[in-house]
Amino acid sequence: METKQQEQKKSNVNKVLILIIALLTVFCGVLVWQYIELNKAVKVEVTEKLEVTEEKDALTVELENMLSEYDNLQSNNQTLQGEMDMQREKIEELLKEVEKNKGNTAMMHKYKKETETLRKIMHNYVVTIDSLNTLNQNLKTENVQAYAKISLQQTKFEELNKEKTNLVQRVENASILSAISAVGTAVTYKSSGKESETNRAKKAEKIKVCFTLGENKIAEKGTREVFVRILSPEGKVLAEGADDNYMFSFDGIRGLYSAKRNVEYQNEVITGCAYFTVKETEILPSGLYVADIYADKAKIGSVNFELK
User: Which one of 92, 185, 248, 305 counts the least CB within 10 Å of its CB?
Assistant: First the structure.
């Protein structure tokens, strides 16, 4: 009879272990999927910002080139010269507007159309002046200098594009710190002081959350504060206190944390554990617990675990 009970108990334990392993496997899959989706979102956002920046830089180069060309367009006709001066002022004003609204995609499209119109107007002036005047040698020399300046600006623009390409590559290889795996469990202590894991809520003396930070060659090396925020089955944050000493900043707000751990991050995989101490007068409720992991004021991982 006693042997059957032991076998039944062992069978139940095995079932629980299988269930926990299955849940951890599913959770790790979800973490990987979230990590991939986050990287996609970061790449899309960075690409959009770079496209707007490139369009702004292209407009700036184009408008500055037009100013340089206007510097070399001179006419003895006062009316024609006055009109060209007015166009030059419009270009200078547009340059200021481009710089002022450099992050606005819609405005960049509007400025591009205005630049095309200004370019056509300037082209008409060039044709008109060519038809009215025969360029002298000095004007030819000035044109050579102007085009040399344009060539230099074009070279700078190409170099800027190369730098941006390198930046995109760096962004693709970089991300914030990520907890590539995490495990949460309750622990109790024997009289010898040895730690023992348990899935029984009423026996829990502490909750232990262990995490593994992934390799990141771009992240800054040094001490990192890793915070763990544990939610009980009722949705309550487990915390050892309620004042500011037990709060931290994350996602633009401040809130309670359950435990924290300092790790020396050296751009390589590193594992650490943080402990929440259960008050002697408190018995934890049974059910599903959620432990969210934060570093650098951002959520980097999460793990679910059940206490019975």
Answer: 92
Q: Which residues make Cβ contacts (< 8 Å) with residue 225, sequence separation at least 6?
A: 248, 260, 261, 262, 295
pLDDT in tens, the chain (308 residues): 556 666 666 666 666 667 676 666 655 555 555 554 555 544 444 445 655 577 878 878 888 888 888 888 777 778 888 888 888 888 888 888 878 877 677 787 887 888 888 888 888 877 877 777 665 566 567 666 767 777 777 777 777 777 766 665 555 445 578 888 999 999 999 888 899 999 999 999 999 999 999 988 888 889 999 999 999 999 999 999 989 999 999 988 999 999 999 999 998 999 999 999 999 888 999 999 999 999 999 999 999 999 99
- The closest alpha carbon to 204, from 184, 224, 221, belongs to 184
Maximum CA extent, the chain: 117
**Helix runs in 72-136, H state only:** 78-100, 105-132
Q: Which DSSP letter does residue 243 get? A: S
All domains of the chain in start order, with CATH: 45-173 (no CATH), 176-307 (2.60.40.10)
Distance CA(219)–CA(64), nearest Å, equals 38
Which tokens hold the place of 307?
Answer: 């206490």
